[in-house]
Each structure stands twice: as C-alpha cells, then as structure tokens.
Amino acid sequence: MDIETLREYCLAKKATHEGFPFDQTTLVFKVVDRMFAVIDLEQPNHVTLKCDPDYALELRDRYHGVEGAFHFNKKYWNQVALDGDVPDELLRRLIDHSYEEVLKKFTRKQKEAYHALS
Q1: CB within 8 A of 6, min separation 6: which ones?
Q2: Which of 13, 29, 91, 115 lies 20 to 30 Å from 3 when distance is taken between CA atoms?
Q3: What pTM was estimated for this model as a whole?
Q4: How do residues 72-95 score in pLDDT, each as one tens digit?
C-alpha cells in the first residue's frame, strides 16, 4: 500500500482528521482528538498503529514488517512496513483495529462529540 492510499483510507473514517501536532514531518490521524495512525514523512514506508497488546505480539511474531513502534509504548503500538510482508487487506484491517481500539477508550465527552458528527 502506498502512503496516499493509506491517507485516503484513514481520512474516510468517521470523525477523522489529519495534522502535524508534533513537528512538520510527523503526520497524525486522529478520530475526534485521539491518535490512531502516525506516519513519519521522512520515512513514509511505515505507519504506526494502536493495537491490542496480545494481538500486537502475535503480529510481530508472524510478520517481519511488524515491530514495536519507535517512540511509542510498544505494548500498545506497532510500526508496520508498507512495503513489507503485510498484505494490503491486513493493513486495512489493522487500521480499522487501531481506530476501534481508540474508540473503545473514549470518554463520555469524546463519545458525544463522535456521535454528534453523524
């Protein structure tokens, strides 16, 4: 999957927006105000995604292109190579999974903001 396809897939999700909250090279995708995907534009061949801790370990064992995310809590965040052994369909499911993991942790206020954007 190329970076533009990934970007379009992320932005098609409800209540999602992109921005550069850290610096000019770290593109962050958020649902409401919580991150679910991050791309370092200086190394655009990887995406960082939130993941259930047990599933994160399973993915790292199975795919060379999945590893603990650099500069993130490796228990909950994976770095996935866009040009590695992870099929595009699985990458879409991992983006969906990351999005859902973030939604599960929403506060009541975040849930209200999310549902108001129908």
Answers
A1: 37, 39, 47, 82, 91, 95
A2: 115
A3: 0.94
A4: 999 999 999 999 899 999 999 999
